[in-house]
Amino acid sequence: QVQLVESGGGLVQPGGSLRLSCAVSGRTFSTCHMGWFRQAAGKEREFVAAIHRNGNTYYSDSVKGRFAISRDNAKRTVYLQMNSLKPEDTAIYYCAADGSFILSVTPRNYDDWGQGTQVTVSS
Predict the structure, then answer these.
(1) Which residue in 20, 29, 37, 69 has a CA-CA distance of 20 to 30 Å to 63?
(2) Are 48 and 59 in contact (CB under 8 A)?
(3) What is the rounded distance in angstroms from the CA atom of residue 82 to the CA atom of residue 25?
């Protein structure tokens, strides 16, 4: 059974940092693109960051320069380092796996999803 297990969410003050992790099991990992998405209350799920299987990274404009996605194939884990956090970053964060040849920033093109982890940025 495919499992994506997110961890690392929590409450952090504005300007603070948080690192999310997503451990993947039950499917190919090293050849998959991995993405992070988030969904705030009352809003649609939106793209945050993605990492190609070759290591190239992509970010939404709202997080570029503040967030960094990385992967460790040996640990079958993808990370999202979040710095300079803002209240607007408050959302449930989801990791997702995409086995396609072409990396996508569209949620529907991802095959498997984690359960989500809550990130709350508040003073």
Answers:
(1) 29
(2) yes
(3) 24
User: Which of 35, 11, 20, 19 is closest to 87 using CA atoms?
Assistant: 11
| 45-89 pLDDT per residue, tens | 999 999 999 999 999 999 999 999 999 999 999 999 999 999 999
Q: Which residues pair with 23 in a beta bridge?
A: 5, 77
Q: In 10 A of CB 109, how many CB atoms?
A: 15
Average pLDDT of the residues in 18-44: 95
Sheet holding 3-7, edge to edge: 3-7, 18-25, 77-82, 67-72
Asked whether 36 and 21 are in contact (CB, 8 A), the reply is no
